[in-house]
Amino acid sequence: MASDAAAVHSNSYETYLDYKGKHKGIFAWILSTDHKRIGILYMVALLSWFLVGMALGGLIRLELLTPGRTIVGPQTYNAFFTLHGVIMLFIFVIPGIPAVFGNFFLPIMIGAEDVAFPRINLLSWYLYIIGGILIILAIFLPGGAPDTGWTFYIPYSIRTSTNMIITLTAVFLLGFSSILTGLNFITTIHRLRAPGMDWFKMPLFSWALYATGWIQVIVTPIIGITLLLVIIERVFGVGIFDPALGGDPILFQHLFWIYSHPAVYIMAVPAMGVISEIIPTFSRRTIFGYKFIAYSSLAIALFGSLVWAHHMFAVGMSDSAEFIFSLLTFMVAIPSAIKVFNWTATLYKGSIQLDPPMLYSLAFIFLFSIGGLTGIIQGALSVDIHLTDTYFIVGHIHYVVFGTAGFGIFAALHYWLPKMIGKIYNMKTAKVAFWITFIGFNILYFPFFIMGWLGMPRRSYDYLPEYQVYHVISTVGSWIMISGILLMFYNLLKSVYTGKRVTERNLWGGETLEWTVPTPPPLTNFEKLPDVTVGPYEYKQNDIEVEEVK
Amino acid sequence: MSTQEHTAVAHLHRDDVRSRMGMWLFLFTELILFGGMFFLYAVYRFLHQADFHVAAKSMNILIGTVNTAILLTSSLTIALSIAALQNKKKILSLILQGITVIFGLLFLVNKYFEWSAEIHHGNYPGSPELISQSSGHILFFGLYYVMTGLHGLHVIIGMVVIMFMMRFTIKDVITPDHIVKLEAAGLYWHLVDIIWIFLFPLFYLIT
Ligand SMILES: [Cu+2]
After folding, report:
1. pLDDT tens digit string along A190-224?
2. Span A482-500, mean pLDDT?
3. Tally of domains in chain B
4. Is B195 contained in some domain?
5. Is B3 within a domain?
6. Among A144, A315, A368, B21, which residue's Cβ finds the most Cβ atoms within 10 Å?
7. What structural domains does chain A harbor?
8. Residue B198 and residue B39 in contact, taking contact as beta carbons nearer than 8 Å
């Protein structure tokens, strides 16, 4: 068809960025139900919040440079680590990859024109923004910033005079936003796949989002009701959690972790999906063990929902309960390791290109392995009694959450941002920024394991002089890592304004559908709806061995 | 679910299956939300069986039973309103939707009198009478107010939703061929009903 042929040439189509809708200026964005624009809206908000969270993290490290007071008092310090946790977890990594890259690429990757419920998609962005605004209010309104830690443990969270109700409402709304995203993606994947795109022809990123969607839908209501009950407890004093009235604070912890452990997978599984896209692309190989990776996402979602009480081994539970939760915790390692082995097997004999997305992905595997293995260490009952509430867990959470979800977002940014905006960043700067970030990361967080093992308690404002050497190393590491991240952000931001234009469809040689559409994508994604006949990652060269094995 | 012909047309046309699937997922999250509270109820009931038994005696079973009857009937009327519209009886459907809303209102009025009576007896969170009671007693009333209160909130939301559906029906946004919105509202109303079916025995009938 003539019209199809014309659309192949650049500038003969209208990109989603050029599209002029009913609204002008900023309203063309904040009233748009186009999944690509919503993805960009999320990206801008998320990365801005990330900078805030990072600044708070930097301030925490600075305060801990010396024992006693360094820059702020203890109350401010408590607010710092609370806000750092709340912002990084609930505002940055939990929406994270699904909200930004899932929104932008999921419909394209499965051959759809949009998500199942575009207007609900925009609604979830508004809930997200309102949640963020409430956090800002909680910081600056009289009463003071929340100081409970991101876990909001009872009874302190019903006793403290800081702005808890606003903070809890904010997290409640963020949870609602997360539920709507998950609901949208599940339905999208069920109903909007292109002709021929059956389940096992879907890219692994969509599988990851599908598993994540279910985790979001299943466990997020639990945190919703739990935080709502804390609010009610503060306002009316009903006694459900208040030990003074007969309530049980440990029940709060159970409900909190029933959500918050699976929440780790809401952060990590989409990042694993990103890695499963990038690794085959940059090693020119079919992904090894496609079905294993796909099913292991579901297995993680399942097992991960049954291990919450490993956060409570020192709290008080029956021995048999502790034993079961410890065993199940070990079992989560199986699907996680399946992924790591399959990625490594994909790399084997591939022609590997160390472009920035690949560097971040390899770093992901490295950091995830350390984070995962240190998780196993704490899953062992006797060891956990020694390690609980020390810096060991802080090191573990940063390797797992930042090392996977954070690096997953960085990898995705370098992989997909040029496709999203049609401009590419400076490769050399990106690689330099990567190495600074990666090295800084390890200098910053690895000492956490050592001082945790030696007994340094988490969240502590002050510490004994013997721990100072580790704190100093760590704080210096934070300076290195922050400079690396700032360089990366500068490089990416610069590419938005003055980056080299790219018009080729397939920037990296990827084999999934988003690389078959023009760059940047047109408003309705496809010139004509694709008819899918082959699976993803069907590379022609370097692939003979795998075919023979089958 | 590898039905390719379904997914193929989904982009281009209205897809009622998609809308229904979204609604069911949403109802599922609502069930889990209440599930968290049923979980708390189960634990506290287990720990304070005698107290719960005594506290439930002060509940007004008559009002509870009447409200159960009201909600069950309203579930019937909303289901009939869908059937009526499917049979192209628009006016009848509107009347039945209106009756559902009125039933919801009656439920809330009863609830208001019930709560007022309890509060009059000093059974409300933080009251001196309640604080002086055993912790099982306090927890029973804490759960009672929170769970029935949150359920009442859902009744209000359901009524507002159905009123919107009446508006849509009048304006022919909802027609016999485009009925999925009304169906979704009906599902929501059934959910409100089902949750009450569990609340009623747990608070009124355990004496
Ligand atoms: Cu956990």
Report:
1. 999 988 888 988 999 999 999 999 999 999 999 99
2. 95
3. 1
4. yes
5. no
6. A368
7. 36-516 (1.20.210.10)
8. no
- Return d(Cα A373, Cα A333) in angstroms, integer: 8
d(CA B67, CA B61) in angstroms, rounded, equals: 10
What does the alpha-carbon distance between residue B177 and residue B153 come to, in Å, rounded to a whole number?
31
Q: For residue A208, give the nearest of A257, A260, A279, A267 by alpha carbon.
A: A267
A367 pLDDT band, cuts 50/70/90, is very high
Using an 8 Å CB-CB cutoff, list residues of chain A that contact chain B: 112-113, 116-117, 120, 179, 183-184, 186-187, 190-199, 217-222, 224-226, 228-229, 232, 236-240, 245-248, 251, 255, 529
In a domain, B11, yes or no: no
Alpha helices in A315-355 (DSSP H): 319-347
What was the ipTM of the complex prediction?
0.91
Cβ partners under 8 Å of residue A438, min gap 6: A359, A363, A484
Alpha-helical segments (H) within A237-248: none
**How far from chain centre, in Å, is Cα A76?**
27
Are A106 and A187 in contact by the 8 Å Cβ rule? The answer is: no
Is residue A276 very low, low, confident or very high in pLDDT (cuts 50, 70, 90)? very high
Cβ count near A400 (within 10 Å) = 21
The amino acid that residue A73 corresponds to is G
Q: Is B176 helix (H, G, I), strand (E, B) or coil?
A: coil
For residue A542, the CA-to-ligand 1 centroid distance in Å is 39
A457 phi/psi in degrees, rounded to 5: -75, 145
Tell me, yes or no, if B135 comes closer than 8 A to chain A by beta carbon.
Answer: yes
Determine the longest span between alpha carbons in chain B, in angstroms.
Answer: 66
Sign of CA dihedral A114, A120, A126, A131: negative
B11 has a pLDDT exceeding 80: no
Q: Do B29 and A183 touch (CB under 8 A)?
A: yes
- Which residues have a Cβ under 8 Å from the Cβ of A87 and sit 6 or more positions away? A49, A52, A53, A56, A135
pTM of the model: 0.92
User: pLDDT tier at B129 (50, 70, 90 boundaries)?
Assistant: confident
Q: Is residue B20 part of a domain?
A: no
Distance CA A514, CA A368 (A): 27
